[in-house]
Fold each of these.
Amino acid sequence: MAAEHAHLTLPSLRDGPLPLPPMGGEGKFGDWRNDRGFRERAIDIIFAANKETPMTNLALTDDLFFARTGMDATRVEKLVGEQLRGMDDGELFLEYSQSESVALDDGRIRSAGFDTTQGFGLRAIADDAAGYAHASEISEAAIKRAGATVRAVASGHHGTMAEPPSGTNRILYTDLNPLGAVDLSAKTKLLTDIDAYARGLDPRVRQVMASISGVWQAVQIVRADGSRVADIRPLVRVNVSIMVGEGDRMETGSYGSGGRFAYERYLDPANWKRHVDEALRQALVNLDSVPAPAGEMVVVLGSGWPGVMLHEAVGHGLEGDFNRKKTSAFSGMMGQQVASKGVTVVDDGTIPDRRGSLTVDDEGTPSGYNMLIEDGILKGYMQDRMNARLMGVRPTGNGRRESFGYAPIPRMTNTYMLAGGHDPQEIIGSVKKGLYAVNFGGGSVDITSGKFVFSASEAYLIEDGKVGPAVKGATLIGNGPDAMTKITMIGNDLRLDDGVGTCGKDGQGVPVGVGQPTVRMDGITVGGTAA
Ligand SMILES: [Zn+2]
């Protein structure tokens, strides 16, 4: 069997022991564990603010997919019912998306792309077989042609169509299109301001790269019973990378942030300067770094983005498809202890404004707060509709796709570990000799073996309970189920990352979030560069 691979990447790094960024409506992350009510209140506030909004997501997307294409909603509902007759499940996925990206490199605006795409994907499911056809032409004729193709999976099949997802009135993010709200000249000025500010901060700054990008995605899901669900998803991001040099030595540092909101907050100098300050801080730390040691040692992971460890070590391994096919290192372990006591990991698509959040997934299921591991015990998988049905469990709102060009598969949203009881200083103070890793470039995992690798972009030695010199080139290597049992201390400082991660699986990239408190792991293999 071919190994299943997945990975988490980011064009630029983030995190560090910084104050909580002024973005997202979450408040103090440390409160989450026992304060689910906070999030509900935050959602209520958004509801109140949007009361004047006259159009629902469904009405807005009806304009895009029906009024503008000449399709008739009632005829399309009937058409989908006809095409999917006798199937176990399936849906029509309609998508309209606008995206743009402006980048500055070496003092010049290098690219300013703007793109609009639209299309549909029609899926028919019979047992564990799925037929999928997609087209960029949104018309009833094209949907009919797609129907003929996807029905080929089910010759002779007489299934019963699965129940549609229950609806939701939840609003997790604005439906405003960020792309139109701020004009191009303001975005290019932001990037040139970043460049000038960075170069003025330190004479060792040699290169500055900065980018601002945004997406506005509108989707509508039409089911065989005629039910329709819509979602409108803004997504913006700003990244800054700085290269510094001293003599012959060059090092870089990067910082980015983003989420499902408008660009406006990036026009506030206090916010974009924070990005530059952090990128420069990292670059200068690396300028003074020494080669990383190698071998098995105690590793303390910082809070926030180092949660990429969870994404790789357990997240992918708890996706429903791998477990249904029994190709995950966690297959068959439901109800068993798979992590140290005290380790609780959730996948939560319901956090307002977050990069990984979704009102509904790409099958129309409302996203959820899904317990994966509770106090060390494996409690649940992340499911799309097909794998949930085949495993006899409920879909969890994790059926996602990169675009109409792909069938949905189980994917993570925001995956994080809940806070424990230790002060982060106490955790570092407990380590005689080890590694403190606070920033990572991303990672990858082999689902079947559970073996993961991720590389630190900012790390320090811990010597006699104190943070020592910075080290360069440390990679952490481990096995998912094994690594989770090596967690010996959990901090009280849960943070989510700042919103730049993209998860890749089966060739599909989707935006995700990660997070964790400071965590001590005993006996992790560090691949270093020291002789
Ligand atoms: Zn991933």
Amino acid sequence: MYINNVKFARSNQQQKGVLDLKKLSRVQEIDDYAGEIDYELVGFVDKLNRPTLSLRVCGTIHTLCQNCLQPMDVAIDNTSRITVFFSEEDLDAALFADSGSGVEDGVVAEEEFDIMQLVEDEIIMLLPYATKHETCVGMSYADKAENPFEVLKKII
Ligand SMILES: [Zn+2]
């Protein structure tokens, strides 16, 4: 889905939808993630009159515990603010400015800006890596399994 990101921001447009992680090829290249993620993109202008996009992504990611390899769910809910700049130079200057430019993230003005690409990039940044159950049954099992010699010593 493509938007003119400047017009979208200046006219306070909104766009929302749901993405299936199984259908995001770049996400699937990283790992076998599943789940549906809601996104909401809202356009506005910031205090400095710059076109800006607010992107919220939330949902539950189904992945595997890296310890016991059983399924586990990780909830994500994140909102980021993306400022639209009219040139690469302005974007770089704002992103790499030493003094706080107030810019969290930015993109360049485009008449055909790909929303799905933006949402997928955002999801990729939020993907859980090397996740483990908070109280993992597999772990305690592994601990016990590693200690037969300790047990033996006590018996002897
Ligand atoms: Zn586990």
